[in-house]
Amino acid sequence: MKHAAITGIGAYLPERRLTNADLETMVDTSDEWIRTRTGIGERRLAAEGEATSDLAAAAGVAAIADAGLTVDDIDFLVVGTSSPDHVFPSTASLVQAKLGLTCAGVDVMAACTSFVFALHHATVTIEAGRASTVLVIGADALTRHVDFTDRRTCVLFGDGAGAVVLQAADEPGIMGIDLGSDGTGADVLTIPAGGSAMPCTPERVAEGLHHVRMVGSEVFKFAVRAIPETTERALAASGLTSDDVTWLVPHQANQRILDTVADRLGIAHERVVSHIEWVGNTSSASIPLAVHDLYTSGNLRPGDVLALVGFGAGLTWGAAIVRWTKGPVR
Ligand SMILES: CC(C)(COP(=O)(O)OP(=O)(O)OC[C@H]1O[C@@H](n2cnc3c(N)ncnc32)[C@H](O)[C@@H]1OP(=O)(O)O)[C@@H](O)C(=O)NCCC(=O)NCCS
């Protein structure tokens, strides 16, 4: 059986910044509240006319270049997103056209866990010998679905995209993966209207049912339980323990969640990658963006073990243990 390893990584953040000071002029909130409760200082917003596929394509181009490849080398595309450009066609189809890829592409949707699910999809495709070079993108423009009069949610999210190139390899770069779903928690975090269950009508839009709805405290409790559990399972599947983790890269939703799970796993806080202060919760993009930060900072070295851990609506969760095999920044 072939293994899969990361050979390229790229990122894209839209230029427009929305600071906590900006939000203070929009809703009844404060920089102090947002920083203390979430760790977020600012976030990026997709420009007018800039869609999730644009963010994804920009990150994809960067990842392909970083791998030293061209679009002709990519033989499968997986896009993790929960804010697709349209109900259909898939965002992967649009990214494929924007990049000039000739391979098949598919969307994977597991809310903020989408990147980990997409990585799993790409890994098993390579391991099965069905592809040798897969572009995996996590991209979201969730601010398009946020009610900017609802202070409970509008301070949290930002837009962005991150991508990796996964290639067949002799040694495993992607080691153990653990995934999970529990649909009994579906109501805790949802965009109720806009799908087949509740098509958008003027009445539903007036009620704001097309916006993100979240019971924040329930999501918090779920996250601090699910992240350590899924990480431990993925580590066990890799024959490792938390002592072997060089970098814990959790989905960036709340700094307090990151601190709590680090303590529960017995991982020192300086080993936990956090960029939430600068970009907020970028959903499917947050994990590859955080790995990209680590990579470009020069702190990621061949042989390092990363635990990439997601959680989100569904409810969904998942962890992928990665042995970094790639050289320094090109
Ligand atoms: C959303 C979250 C930051 C809220 O923090 P919290 O400490 O749980 O705060 P609460 O929801 O208990 O609200 C406390 C108070 O702050 C208020 N509040 C909420 N948002 C506020 C804001 N942006 N500014 C000021 N006050 C705010 C609430 O109205 C509440 O006021 P009340 O006590 O008068 O009713 C936190 O629950 C969280 O991060 N949950 C996880 C969310 C998440 O990860 N989502 C993404 C999953 S992928």
CATH class of the largest domain: Alpha Beta
Order of helices and strands: EEHHEHEHEHEHEEEHEHEHHHEE
Into how many domains do the coordinates divide?
Answer: 2
Number of strand segments: 13
Major beta sheet, specifics? 5 strands, mixed
Going by CATH, what is the homologous superfamily of the largest domain? Answer: Thiolase/Chalcone synthase
Strands of the largest sheet, in order across it?
Answer: 1-7-6-4-5
Give the structural class. alpha/beta
Work out the radius of gyration. Answer: 19 Å
Low-pLDDT stretches are none
N- to C-terminal distance: 30 Å
Strands, helices and their partners?
Elements: E1 3-12, E2 16-19, H1 20-24, H2 31-38, E3 42-45, H3 52-66, E4 76-80, H4 91-99, E5 105-108, H5 114-127, E6 133-140, H6 151-154, E7 160-169, E8 174-181, E9 189-190, H7 202-206, E10 213-214, H8 216-237, E11 247-250, H9 255-265, H10 276-279, H11 286-296, E12 305-312, E13 316-323
Parallel strand pairs: 4-5, 4-6, 11-12
Antiparallel strand pairs: 1-7, 2-3, 6-7, 8-13, 9-10, 12-13
Helix pairs in contact: 3-4, 8-9
Bound molecules: coenzyme A.
Coenzyme A is lined by residues 29, 33-34, 37-38, 112, 151-152, 155, 189, 214, 216-217, 219-220, 223, 253-254, 281, 312.
Describe the structure.
This protein is α/β, with parallel strands linked by helices. The chain has 2 domains: 3-171, Peroxisomal Thiolase, Chain A, domain 1; 176-323, Thiolase/Chalcone synthase (Peroxisomal Thiolase, Chain A, domain 1, 3-Layer(aba) Sandwich). 33% of the residues lie in helices and 23% in strands. It has helices at residues 20-24, 31-38, 52-66, 91-99, 114-127, 151-154, 202-206, 216-237, 255-265, 276-279, 286-296; strands spanning 3-12, 16-19, 42-45, 76-80, 105-108, 133-140, 160-169, 174-181, 189-190, 213-214, 247-250, 305-312, 316-323. The strands form 4 sheets. The chain has a 5-stranded mixed beta sheet with strand order 1-7-6-4-5, with helices on both faces. Strands 8-13-12-11 form a 4-stranded mixed beta sheet, with helices on both faces. A two-stranded antiparallel ribbon has the order 2-3. Strand 12 (305-312) and strand 13 form a beta hairpin. The longest helix is centred in the last third of the chain and has 22 residues, at 216-237. Coenzyme A (COA) is lined by residues 29, 33-34, 37-38, 112, 151-152, 155, 189, 214, 216-217, 219-220, 223, 253-254, 281, 312.
